Amino acid sequence: MIRRIALLLGLSLLITLLMPRRATLSLDFTPGETWDSETLTAPFDIPVYKSSEQLAAERKALVDGFQPVFRLDTAVATARLHTLAKDLNATPGLSDAQRTRILDEFRYVYRNGMLSDADRNTYADRMVRTDSAHILQSYYVADLFTPATAQQFLKSAGIDPEQAVPYLTPSLIYDPSLNARLQEQALAKLSQTEGIIRAGEVIVSEGEMIDRPVATRLTSYRREYENRLGQGLSGWVLFLGKLVVVAAILTLSHIFFRFFSHKHFAGWRPLLFTFLLYTILSALTTLAVQTPFLSPYIVPLPVVAILLLTFFDTRVAIFGNIAATLLAALFVRYSFEFFTVNFLAGTVAILVMRHYYRRHSLFKVVGAVLLTEALLYIAFMWMRSGTLRGDYTGVLWFVASAFLMLAFYQLVYIFERLFGFVSDITLLELSDTNQPLLLRLSEKAPGTFQHSVQVASLAENAAKEIGANPLLARAGALYHDIGKIENPLFFAENQTEHFNPHSMLSPAQSAAIVRMHVTDGIALGRKHQLPAVIQEFISSHHGTSKVYYFYAEEMKLHGEVARPEEFTYPGPMPVRREVAICMMADAVEAASRSLANYDRETIDELVDRIIDRQIAEHQLSRSELSFAEVTRIKELFKMRVYNMYHSRISYPAAS
Predict the structure, then answer these.
(1) Which of 3, 35, 150, 270 is least enclosed by beta carbons within 10 angstroms?
(2) What pTM was computed for the model?
(3) Do 584 and 637 meet the contact criterion of CB atoms below 8 Å apart?
(4) How far apart are CA 15 and CA 324, in angstroms?
(5) 572 phi/psi in degrees, rounded to 5
(6) Contact (Cβ atoms closer than 8 angstroms) between residue 569 and residue 542
(7) Would you tell me how many other CB atoms lie within 10 Å of the CB of residue 92?
(8) How far apart, in whole angstroms, are the C-alpha atoms of residue 284 and residue 37?
C-alpha cells in the first residue's frame, strides 16, 4: 500500500511539474460573430499584442529590408598602398608629384572600401553598410568601388588600368556570422505590442461585432490574464490546483483498476506500467506544446488504449484512454477539442482492435485512428470558422502521429519482458505445438497431449462465443496439464489396457499422485519461464475440486473420508474467464471419453451435470462469468462434443 501511495504522489508531482506554468482562461469567441456576453472591461493595464500574422509580416519586412554589413579590412588597403608606393619609387622617370598623385587616387579608391564584383551584383540597387572599427556607415552599392569600376576611375585619372590591377583587391568582406547576429538583434527589438488598454477601459461591449481589432484585444486580454496568474502567489495556487486534478485522475485510475480489473492489477507492476504510459505521453505533450513548430496533435495518445488492450482487457483500455487523454488535455489551450479528438480516436482503436491474429491488423487500427482524428479535426475547424475554407495541412500532424504509434507499438516486446505481460503475439507463439515443452508433452504423454489439444479447441471456441480472449484460452489450455509429464502412466489417457499402476496403490496414494500434476506443472512452467498468466491455467484448472474417482473409492473402502484435503486439489479457484472456461472444457472433454453412448441426450446430460457441479461447489464464483455466459458455453460444449463423437457411415470392405 505504501508503495502504491508513493507511486501516486510521485507521479502526480512529476506530471504537474511537466505542465506549462500558465493559467487557462475560458474565453471562446469567433471572429465575425457578435459578443453575446456582458460588456468586458480591463481589470488591469493590458498591452495589445500584435497578431501572429502581423508579427510575421513585420519580421518579413525587416528581413527583406535588412542592410547587409561588410567588414572593412584596412590591412588590405595598407598592404596594397605600401606595395604601390614601393613600386612607384622603383619606377624611373616619375616625379615626386606624379607619385603623390597616383597614391592619392588609390587612397581615394580604398577610402570607403572596395567590394568584389560578385557582391556588387548580388546587392545591386540596395543599401549596404560597412563596419570600420565597429562604426557602421550606410552606402548605396553603386557608390562603392569594385576592382572593375576602380580601373575605369583610374583610367579617367590618366593611370593605366592594366598596370593598376595588381594593386586592386576587395577590402570589404561579407561576414555571415556578423550579419546573422545583427539580424537577430533587429528581430529581437521588434515590438510585440501596439498600444495598451488601460484598466477600466472597455475591451468589448455586449452585442459588438468581433472584428479583427476586437479579436486582437480579446486575445491580448487572455494572454495577459494567463501570464499574470502564473506568477507569485497565484502561481503556487495554480500549481496546487493542477496537482489536485492530476492526483484525482491517477487515484481514480488506481481505484477503478483495483475494483473492476483486480485480476490484472493484483500486483504493483501493472499499475506502474499504466502510470508510466501516462507520464511518457504527458512528457511528449509537454515537448510538443513548448516547441513552437510542433502541434500537440502529433502526440500518439491513442497508443495508450492500444497497449492497455494488448496486455489487459477492454475496461482497462477504455478507462486508461479516458485518463491519459484527460491528463494530456490539461497541457493544451483548447482542451475540449483536444480531448474529444483523442478520446474518440482511442475508442475507435479499441473497437477495431480487440484481439488480432494477423500482422496487418495493427495497420488497420492505426488507419482507423488516423481517419477518425482527421475527420474530427476538420469538423472542429468548420465549427470554429463557419466556412469550408481552412488550413487542411493540420491533418499532416495526424499522419506523423500514426507513424509514431506504429513505432511506439514496437516496444511491446520490451514491456513484456520488463513487466511480465503477455501480448497476443506471444500467445500465438506459445500456441505453436512445436514449442519445446509441448513437444516433450507429446512424446512423454501422447494421450495427455491429445486431450490438451481437444480442450484447447473447446476453450478457444467458448472464449469466442462470450467475447473473452480466444488466444489466451487456447494457449493456456495447451499447457494446463504439462505436469503429467512427470508421471504420465498414472493418468487414464496415457494407460494401456494391460496395466494400471493405481491398482497397486491406496486411493489416498493415487489421489496424491494425481494432485501432484498441478504442482509439477507449476514447477515446469517456472523452469521454462512460461508467462504468469499461462501458469494460472496450470494452477487453477481444477480449482479446489476433489479427485472424484479416488474420493469415491475411499468412501467405498472405509465408508468415510477421514482427511478430505488429501483428495482436494490445492487451487486456487479460477479468476480469469479464460481459466474458468478451461476448467469446464477440461472436465467435459475428460469425462466424455468414458461415455458408452454418444447420443445427444447422453452428452447433454454429461455437460449439464459436470458444469452444474462446478457451480454448486462455487468453483466459478471468483471468475467474472455470468450465468448467461455459462449457459452459452454449455450449449457450445454440447454441440462440439456431439460433433466430435457423432457416428459415421460404415464403408463396405474392399472385395
Answers:
(1) 3
(2) 0.66
(3) yes
(4) 11
(5) -80, 175
(6) yes
(7) 4
(8) 36
Joined grid coordinates for residue 38? 456582458
- Residue 435 CA to residue 479 CA, distance in Å, equals 11
Residues of the chain with pLDDT under 50: 655
444 CB contacts (<8 Å, ≥6 apart)? Answer: 485, 488
Report which residue type is found at 583.
M
Q: Find residue 137's DSSP bridge partners.
A: 130
The rounded distance, in Å, linking the Cα atoms of 412 and 409 is 6
Write the DSSP symbol of residue 150.
Answer: H
Residue ranges of alpha helices (H) inside 114-231 are: 117-122, 147-156, 161-164, 176-188, 212-229
Instruction: Give residue 655's pLDDT.
Output: 46
**Residue 636's pLDDT is what?**
95
Chain CA centroid to CA 55, Å? 34
Start-end of H helices in 541-626: 548-558, 577-592, 600-616
Spatial CA neighbour of 80 closest among 51, 50, 105: 105
- Which residues, including other chains, have CB under 8 Å from residue 18's CB and lie 6 or more apart? 282, 283, 286, 331
DSSP calls for 607-654: HHHHHHHHHHTTTTTTS---HHHHHHHHHHHHHHHHHHH---PPPPPP
**Distance (Å) of CA 33 to CA 209, 389, 543:** 6, 17, 68
CB 583 within 8 A of CB 480: no
d(CA 17, CA 19): 5
Read off the C-alpha cell for 11.
507521479
Determine the Cα–Cα distance for residues 161 and 281; give it in Å rounded to an integer: 72
- pLDDT of 500-520, one tens digit each? 888 888 989 998 999 999 999
Q: Which amino acid is at 617?
A: E
* Neighbouring C-beta atoms of residue 360, cutoff 10 Å: 9
Predicted confidence at residue 333, as pLDDT, reads 74
